[in-house]
């Protein structure tokens, strides 16, 4: 065997061994003692996926996104991290389900804001025969309570045969005076009385301060 062929064989064996070593190092990690440590799989992108039929599967985010595109569905995160699996939870929804879920979340947020806003409840009872000055004094009390973030329950008690028409006029006066800083809900007639509630608006404190003077000026004109 000549020198040329021998060099060729040596070179070929060297390249082969180099490739084998390189392949081995990409698959395993070798410790200082020379032991192979299996490479750990990466589960960072693993998620729990709930299908429209409520079946549950484990996949990765990329596959879930591809699946949502193929099926023309919305991929929605419904939980950041599950306490048991430590994985985020996603759900595939139809457009109708997605919009219903969004409306539900908005209602929950609105209720939460309202509950946080209201400090408590106050009851005010007025007679259907109340005079103009006393009525305006009562309206000012309502406005102060609403401005302090209280829910005010108002009862206009009937006193005579014309109670219904008088109570309605009193209600109109109250509504006109407080409409810039509160909203009236659950207006109803129970027996001889007219009842409703005043709920503070989210920015009622600033609105009330701006409108107090104008309401006081209007009171001079007489409510009825």
UniProtKB/TrEMBL annotation:
Q: Name one GO cellular component term.
A: mitochondrion
The entry lists its GO molecular-function terms as: ribosome binding; translation initiation factor activity
User: Where in the sequence is the signal peptide annotated?
Assistant: none
Top-level taxonomic group? Eukaryota
Cell membrane in keyword set: no
List, in alphabetical order, the GO biological process terms annotated in this UniProt record: mitochondrial translational initiation; ribosome disassembly
UniProt keyword annotation of Hydrolase present: no
Q: Where is this region: Disordered?
A: 201-224
Tell me which UniProt keywords the record has, alphabetically. Answer: Initiation factor, Protein biosynthesis
Gene3D superfamilies per UniProt:
Translation initiation factor 3 (IF-3), C-terminal domain
Skewed-composition ranges (Polar residues): 203-217
Entry's family note? Belongs to the IF-3 family.
Protein name per its UniProtKB record: Translation initiation factor IF-3, mitochondrial
Q: Lineage, please?
A: Eukaryota, Metazoa, Ecdysozoa, Arthropoda, Hexapoda
